[in-house]
Amino acid sequence: MNASTAPDAAQPEQAPLLNIANALTVLRLLLVPVFIWLSLLPGDRAGLAAVVVFVVAAFTDRLDGQLARSWGLVTSFGKIADPIADKALTLSAFALLSINGRLWWWVTILIVVRELGITVMRFFMLRRAVMAASRGGKIKTTLQMVGLVGLLTPWSALFLSAGAADFMLRAAYVVVAAALIVTVVTGLDYVRQAVQLSQRGGHAGR
Ligand SMILES: O=P(O)(O)OC[C@H](O)CO
């Protein structure tokens, strides 16, 4: 939602906790069980409905960040909850794909370890600073979401030729590969930021 590591104690929050940006973040979290339920139903129609719910939830990620920045609705809750809502959505999709044998487990496990590891680290770092999502983190989430939509969509049910459906699926795997690289690199970068903050021994100074 917010670029860079932001100070928490130095600047008291102006925006109310109950605002449209945070409501969209909570909506994204609430859409996750709906997406999982639809994904587990048999048939292409349920699969397509699951993709629609996923896309709506992914769109709220774009919208909440934009609204928070442009309307001055940035809160510490949003900085923490926004990445958690993203991870709940993307990690459930990665796990479902691996369960269905459509994505290698090692890819899902690597991404789960990075995402949960950074979330735990964020909570530990709260004593010093709120580590908001970085630019790289946002790019990573976008790549993951685009790749996931490509892998989740039953392309053949969209009246595409076999060749076109195959092309879309291959393109999705390429995007997921790019997402995997950015996921690992940005994870390491967050660790570097956390080490620097810890060494400074105080609040993030921006
Ligand atoms: O890479 P993270 O953990 O900062 O997550 C990034 C967010 O999902 C961007 O909205």
UniProtKB/TrEMBL annotation:
At the top of the EC hierarchy, this enzyme's class is transferase
Q: What is its main location?
A: membrane
What biological-process GO terms show up in the record?
glycerophospholipid biosynthetic process
Q: What is the membrane topology noted in the UniProt record heading this document? A: Multi-pass membrane protein
Q: Which InterPro entries match?
A: CDP-alcohol_PTase-I, CDP-OH_P_trans, CDP-OH_PTrfase_TM_dom, CDP_ALCOHOL_P_TRANSF_CS, Phosphatidylglycerol_P_synth
Its EC number(s): 2.7.8.5
**Which GO MF terms does the UniProt record name?**
CDP-diacylglycerol-glycerol-3-phosphate 3-phosphatidyltransferase activity
**What Gene Ontology terms describe where this protein resides (cellular component)?**
membrane
Top-level taxonomic group:
Bacteria
Transmembrane: present as a keyword of the record?
Answer: yes
Q: What Pfam family is a match, any one?
A: CDP-OH_P_transf
Family, per entry: Belongs to the CDP-alcohol phosphatidyltransferase class-I family.
PANTHER family noted in UniProt: CDP-DIACYLGLYCEROL--GLYCEROL-3-PHOSPHATE 3-PHOSPHATIDYLTRANSFERASE-RELATED, PHOSPHATIDYLGLYCEROPHOSPHATE SYNTHASE-RELATED
State the protein's name: CDP-diacylglycerol--glycerol-3-phosphate 3-phosphatidyltransferase
